[in-house]
Specification:
With 87 residues, the chain is mainly β. The protein contains no helices and five strands.
Length: 87
Amino acid sequence: MKDFYQTNPGDNIEPSKPTDVFIGYDSRFFYIGVHAFDDPAKVRASVARRDGVFGEDNVRIFLDTFNDQRKAYVLVGIRLGCNKTAS
């Protein structure tokens, strides 16, 4: 996949670093893999409780399963594995 955008810092701007996303599925599961390129020493990450990811560098995936561009399932992940899900 391509044509990603960055929202912080910035507001829907071209990403400062490249990101590769891989999607796959089988009869039971949907798989998403993300390779976000950056200098590891500059990535903000700390051990946080579940859902405490918004002060960190993160990757967000919006699944618009209704195809209405108004509501979506949101998957958020950070470098150290903490995650957040929302709808």
